[in-house]
Specification:
By secondary structure, the protein is of the alpha/beta class. The protein contains 17 helices and 13 strands. It has 2 domains: about 210 residues, Rossmann fold, CATH 3.40.50.300; about 220 residues, Rossmann fold, CATH 3.40.50.300. The strands form 2 sheets. A 7-stranded parallel sheet has the order 3-4-2-5-6-1-7, with helices on both faces. A 6-stranded parallel sheet has the order 8-13-12-9-11-10, with helices on both faces. Helix 15 links the parallel strand 12 and strand 13. Helix 6 crosses helix 8 and helix 15 packs across helix 16. The longest helix has 14 residues. It is globular, with a radius of gyration of 24 Å. About 45% of the residues are buried. Bound molecules: adenosine monophosphate. The site of adenosine monophosphate has 14 residues, from helix 3.
Length: about 450
């Protein structure tokens, strides 16, 4: 069952889907939609990029048809809770597209914006409310929104909600919902804490799971570039000098890091914008729009700000810093290779980040191929050789993770020794050949000679 016409969706919804250019369902859609239409609670393990928004909104739009016109002032028939403003905005855009041939009242409330237009938009009641937790609770506390009429409750990106510390907010919201409701729970990952939350708010849920992290990661052509920390800036300039990097998101771990990278790019004459939690909602939205419209080539973002960003045709994701949470890596690289497209990710890894790299490779169950044909390739350096000289990137970095043995670098490649293979087919997994040697300081230039050159190198 892969076509939308194979499931029991009403004509106005099918028409909107067709007009959106969707030909067949994605796996999460073909699994989840029939379950939701049948009235079951649902746990769906799916990431952004899998088509999950349509997986919950299409059946929701259909289910709401049965009570059309039932709106009462200040009440909500269905509530979609999302962790960030950006994600909430995107969900709203999608829902509006899918419901464009129907007459629903759809509203959006999120923080960092004037609340008055939001209050006005819900005054007469809404069919579908998309909200971030903080602003929703604010408006509830002020008596502008009442949740006792909610028939359908959707929690999106539950794992990120918990990461962002929204657990108490979610519980407060759930307390106000009627016990008789249908609940859909979407999360990219299901650690115990998330499972616990799911158990406490769902009733006899069906469970579907698609694109485990490894599968998503496989769609992206990934590379890791070993580089001394104080050379990352130059490496970035080098990499971006290739015009094949048309639309690029650069990730940094911190807000300061994002600002700094954006400033550096400005000095290089590369148009970019930074988005992170310290930027006003308007500034973030403006940056996103400019990026979407192709007015700026590069967006610099922190993990939280970038969650759920839905911009098509991002050609490259650059991890200027490696994330200290391996899950974030998968989310980051998932910004490219969306909806079946392919994409490239380039991860800059300095000496202190090798533990992060190891954790990421463990999670995605693959070695990330090493790209060493760049001028700043770090081979066999001891930490003292490239201690911070001209870069202050570290001032807001969290310290090395527990177990990082500074000054006694562990070998990457799980102790595999170089086999000296010159077989070009091996060059796609060069790090399995341990082609750089942290311990001896030697460079394996001979071996590297046969290495395939990857984008974005022009060599
Ligand atoms: P999501 O995972 O909801 O963020 O969706 C990722 C992207 O896939 C969005 O740009 C959607 O518009 C797009 N999309 C969702 N479902 C389909 C589909 N069945 N066919 C093609 N594109 C889709």
């Amino acid at each position: 069952m892969t076509k939308f016409t194979d499931i029991d969706l009403r004509a106005p919804i099918l028409r909107a889907v067709e007009e959106g250019g969707y030909e067949s369902m994605t796996p999460i859609q073909s699994k989840a939609i029939p379950i939701v239409l049948a009235g079951h609670d649902l746990i769906a393990v799916a990431q952004t990029g899998t088509g999950k928004t349509a997986a919950f909104s299409l059946p929701l739009i259909q289910l709401l048809l049965s009570g059309e016109g039932k709106r009462k002032p200040k009440t909500v028939r269905s509530l979609i809770l999302a962790p960030t403003r950006e994600l909430a905005i995107q969900i709203e855009e999608n829902v509006r597209r899918y419901a464009k041939h129907l007459h629903y009242k759809i509203s959006l409330v999120y923080g960092g914006a004037n609340q008055n237009p939001q209050i006005k938009s819900i005054a007469l009641g809404v069919d579908i409310l998309i909200a971030t937790p903080g602003r929703l609770l604010d408006l509830m506390d002020q008596g502008h929104i009442k949740l006792h009429e909610v028939e359908y409750f959707i929690l999106d990106e539950a794992d990120r909600m918990l990461d962002m510390g929204f657990i108490r907010d979610i519980r407060r919201v759930v307390q106000k919902l009627p016990a008789k409701r249908q609940t859909l729970f979407f999360s990219a990952t299901m650690p115990k804490s998330v499972e616990g939350l799911a158990n406490s708010i769902l009733t006899k849920p069906e469970r579907v799971e698609v694109a485990p992290t490894a599968t998503t990661a496989e769609k992206v052509e990934q590379h890791v570039l070993m580089v001394p920390k104080n050379m990352k800036r130059k490496l970035l300039a080098h990499v971006l000098s290739d015009e094949a990097l048309k639309r690029v998101i650069i990730f940094t771990r911190t807000k300061h890091g994002a600002n700094r990278v954006s400033r550096n790019l400005e000095q290089l004459g590369i148009l970019s914008s930074a988005i992170h939690g310290n930027k006003s909602q308007n500034a973030r939205q403006k940056a996103l729009n400019e990026f979407r419209d192709g007015k700026i080539r590069v967006l610099v973002a922190t993990d939280v700000a970038a969650r759920g960003i839905d911009v098509d045709e991002i050609t490259h994701v650059i991890n200027y810093d490696l994330p200290n949470e391996p899950d974030s890596y998968v989310h980051r690289i998932g910004r490219t290779a969306r909806a079946g497209a392919t994409g490239v990710s380039l991860s800059f890894c300095d000496h202190e980040e090798r533990n992060y790299l190891r954790d990421i490779e463990k999670l995605i169950r693959q070695k990330i191929p090493l790209m060493d044909n760049h001028p700043f390739h770090l081979e066999g350096m001891q930490p003292a050789d490239y201690a911070d000289k001209d870069d202050d990137d570290d001032d807001d970095r969290r310290g090395p993770r527990k177990g990082t043995r500074r000054g006694s670098p562990h070998r990457r490649g799980d102790g595999q020794k170089s086999n000296g293979s010159k077989n070009p087919s091996n060059s796609r997994r060069p790090n399995q050949n341990a082609n750089y040697n942290e311990d001896s300081g030697s460079t394996n230039k001979k071996k590297n000679k046969n290495r395939k050159h990857y984008r974005p190198s022009k060599a």
